[in-house]
Design goal:
Chain A is an alpha/beta fold and about 130 residues long. Chain A has a single domain, classed as 3-Layer(aba) Sandwich (Rossmann fold). Chain A has helices at about 10-25, 35-45, 60-75, 85-90, 105-120, 125; strands spanning about 5, 25-30, 50, 75-80, 100. Helices cover about 45% and strands about 20% of the residues of chain B. In chain B, the strands form two sheets. Chain B has a five-stranded mixed sheet with strand order 2-4-5-7-6. In chain B, strands 1-3-8 form a three-stranded antiparallel sheet. Chain B has about 240 residues and is an alpha+beta fold. Chain B has helices at about 5-35, 45-75, 90-105, 125-145, 200-210; strands at about 85, 110-115, 125, 150-155, 160-170, 215-225, 225-235, 235. Classes of the chains: A alpha/beta (about 130), B alpha+beta (about 240).
Chain lengths: ~130, ~240
């Protein structure tokens, strides 16, 4: 079981990802704002974070701070899931994240990337928390 | 018209065609989701029903975006067919406010609507287009206001026009943001705080509709205490027509 944090402001999309990932035995947490995501990060120490780029009140500097904090706290792999991946460069995140997926993401692709990310993580990160 | 001869006209034509063609697969998705929801194939479990609800809700959202997109293109091209009829401006303002009020209340906002005594009882105009412009402005005001209220005030001007002020207590619009306000899909860094069907198209759609009806839409005032948009439509009194 992998602990996954979804940071996304579309509630229907959160529900959809949650259904898919829990049906495949992952533990899913979610946050609709970055401020909330910082708190969940501390609480659950996720192994993978699926992060949308266009969040309410999420300016580039805050996104970068969130990614750095996530790496420091739990060593989580960061997957950007966005409809506008070109925003990555302006947010200065290009070198800081592990994977970029463009919405819509096909279910088999998402599941396979999650598995691959976990296999690539050092054992200490995968078993933390 | 080819892309080489007149790229702008050709691109607008392609976008319109694409918009219309997208309705076909969307129709299949919506109809199939409806049938699934009604249990026409097999009865659904509550969990399955919830998933189908998501399908229906998001297909409707896509359809609304498509409608806003096509209407904006048509209105800008001077190609919108308007159907002026007698309508009750007080009832229109109330109905628009009523539609958005529950979403405002969810955010803890008050939504007030009023019509001045000088506004005629009946006006002549395309009620559907006017409602759509007003709703787009209301959604926008509610979406970008974190606390306080949104107020709608309709009046009749000295030069015989119907005007509606939409005032919010949002954070205001900065100098840098102002030139982009009416650009399609421009949202700035601040994201709306409720999901809106026409995210990124509300203000351009409202302005395009107003101008297609011979009117105007402008940002009247803005400060850190809020903003006021004003819609101005030169409509005839129904009894004068």
């Amino acid at each position: 079981m992998t602990r996954i944090l979804i940071v996304e402001d579309d509630l229907d999309l959160i529900e959809t990802y949650t259904d898919l990932l829990t049906m495949h035995d992952h533990e899913v947490h979610s946050a609709i704002r970055l401020e909330e995501a910082f708190e969940v990060l501390e609480e659950v120490s996720p192994q993978i974070i699926m992060l949308d780029l266009q969040l309410p009140g999420a300016r580039a500097a805050l996104l970068a701070e969130f990614v750095q904090t996530a790496k420091r706290i739990s060593g989580a792999s960061i997957i950007i899931v966005s409809g506008h991946p070109e925003m990555m460069s302006s947010a200065g995140l290009l070198d800081a994240v592990d994977l970029v997926l463009v919405k819509p993401v096909h279910n088999p692709d998402l599941l396979s990337f999650v598995d691959r990310m976990i296999k690539m993580q050092p054992a200490s990160a995968a078993h933390r928390g | 018209m080819s892309l080489q001869d007149d790229p702008h006209t050709a691109l607008v034509g392609m976008l319109r065609q694409m918009g219309h063609d997208m309705r076909v697969p969307l129709n299949t998705i919506l109809s199939t989701a409806d049938m699934l929801h009604e249990g026409m194939y097999d009865p659904l479990t509550p969990r399955q029903k919830k998933a189908v609800d998501r399908l229906q809700r998001n297909s409707q959202r896509l359809l609304a975006m498509l409608d806003d997109f096509l209407t904006t293109i048509k209105a800008n091209a001077g190609d919108l067919t308007l159907k002026p009829e007698r309508f009750d401006p007080r009832a229109l303002v109330e109905a628009a406010a009523e539609k958005v009020r529950p979403f405002a209340a969810d955010k803890g906002l008050t939504l007030r609507a009023s019509t001045g005594a000088a506004v005629p009882a009946r006006l002549l105009g395309d009620e559907k287009a006017i409602t759509r412009a007003l709703l787009a402005l209301l959604w926008n005001a509610v979406a970008y206001t974190a606390a306080g209220e949104v107020a709608l005030l309709a009046e009749w001007t000295a030069d015989a026009a119907w005007t509606v002020a939409i005032r919010d207590t949002g954070r205001g619009i900065t100098e840098d943001e102002r030139p982009h306000l009416f650009e399609p899909f421009w949202r700035g860094e601040e994201r709306p705080q409720i999901p809106t069907a026409s995210a990124g198209l509300g203000l351009p759609l409202a302005r395009a509709l107003c101008e297609a009806m011979g009117g105007r839409l402008m940002l009247e005032t803005t400060s850190a205490e809020g903003s006021t948009f004003r819609l101005y439509l030169p409509l005839s009194r129904a009894e004068d027509a």
